[in-house]
């Protein structure tokens, strides 16, 4: 980044399941030099290491439902208070309900911070289904690939860190449909929530990965003067 002053950026990536929050969040994190916090990844780490929180979250995630707000909020806020977030962060998949958004506003205010911009990746449901059912992920660095749309150079191996790729339990077609339903009812109202305070920036997430990235970087330049 060219601006070297004491900036801090709190970006939110909004968008349905498979909209590209992980893919774009990873790229923005590298570009801006601030961490990406994915609530879904945090839950999956807990599930993988068999913590109590992981066991609880698993039952909701497997059904394509949301994990209760109080648990989610405290998990994300704990992560946000780690020192690597002092210059801000990219929130991927959080907030996802109006109560989560309100809690985030309150918590940031208490830390004398505020949300910089909400980047809303808009993608048609049909495309989301196709993307999720072909997705492969890296457990180590979190990079996201797709058998047809974005194949790794070597099948089953991460291009970035060389570790093994895996498919998510909740990417089965029936669970994907449930996740889309949950998104429509519980998360889409956030678009209005942020639009009315002038923070929402809509991007066409149905374009190629590179085109979406270009539009996101453009938005950071025009709306925030960074990059
Ligand atoms: P989470 O992990 O956040 O899943 P999600 O929101 O359903 O989104 P995904 O991670 O599936 O998609 P993505 O937008 O990151 O897309 P990606 O970049 O991978 O949450 C999982 C679960 O955890 C939830 O269902 C819930 O139970 C729980 N949870 C999480 N947060 C919560 C919260 N705040 N409150 C309560 N519960 C919570 O891309 C998808 C695929 O498409 C990849 O294969 C990728 O390579 C490909 N692709 C990406 N962009 C493009 C492009 N432009 N063109 C072509 N292909 C593309
Ligand atoms: Mg993701």
What does this 3D model show about the protein?
The protein is an alpha/beta fold. The chain has a domain at about 10-125 and about 185-225: Rossmann fold, CATH 3.40.50.300. The chain is built from 9 helices and 8 strands. It has helices spanning about 20-30, 40-50, 50-60, 70-80, 100-110, 125-135, 175-185, 190-195, 210-225; strands at about 10-15, 35-40, 90, 115-120, 135-140, 145, 165, 200-205. Strands 2-3-1-4-8 form a 5-stranded parallel beta sheet, with helices on both faces. A 3-stranded antiparallel beta sheet has the order 6-5-7. The protein binds BIS(adenosine)-5'-pentaphosphate (AP5) and magnesium ion. BIS(adenosine)-5'-pentaphosphate binds near residues 19 and 96. BIS(adenosine)-5'-pentaphosphate binds near residues 21 and 100.
Main beta sheet: 5 strands, parallel
CATH superfamily of the domain at 9-124 and 187-224: P-loop containing nucleotide triphosphate hydrolases
Q: Quick one: overall form?
A: globular
The CATH architecture designation of the domain at 9-124 and 187-224 is: 3-Layer(aba) Sandwich
Task: Going across the biggest sheet, name each strand in turn.
Answer: 2-3-1-4-8
Which structural class should the secondary elements be placed in?
Answer: alpha/beta
Distance between the termini: 5 Å
What integer value in Å does the Rg equal? 17 Å
- Would you state the CATH class of the domain at 9-124 and 187-224? Alpha Beta
Number of DSSP strand runs: 8
Alpha plus pi helix count: 9
CATH topology type of the domain at 9-124 and 187-224: Rossmann fold
The set of bound ligands, ions and cofactors reads: BIS(adenosine)-5'-pentaphosphate, magnesium ion
- Strand proportion, as a percent range, falls in 15-25%
